[in-house]
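Exercise: predict the fold of this chain.
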Amino acid sequence: MLRIESKVRARALQLLYAWESSGSLQPMDEVARRAISMSNGSGRELERAEDLARKVADRVEEFDGEIADAADNWRLERVGLIERIVLRIGLFELKECTDTPAPIVIDEALRLAHWFGGTKTPQFVNGVLDRLARTNNRL
């Protein structure tokens, strides 16, 4: 049985993917409304996912700068969309959810990486988030 927090993160990743795939031109509210209409998740879970996705989307440029600095030898445009979104969610939680221990944030990001990414995604995400956690004095 998955924890509600894991489901919220997974749904937020899906919303962010849909938003970014549309060229980030549509408001997150519109993307979320369409996704929710096709979803079978609980109302509270979907509201929390939309809130998380909106907060991450509002800070994409800031997060991408930090991720680019932490991803040695990788230009951000070469990092896959799923990987970027997982890293953005993880960085948001490292910065804003200080009551959640950094190892838990990283573990949850790795769970998303395993579910949605390629075979090398978890290793890449782990390395970048570890560095970001240290940079943000969370480890």
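Check your answer against the key: Residues 4-21 form the longest helix (18 residues).
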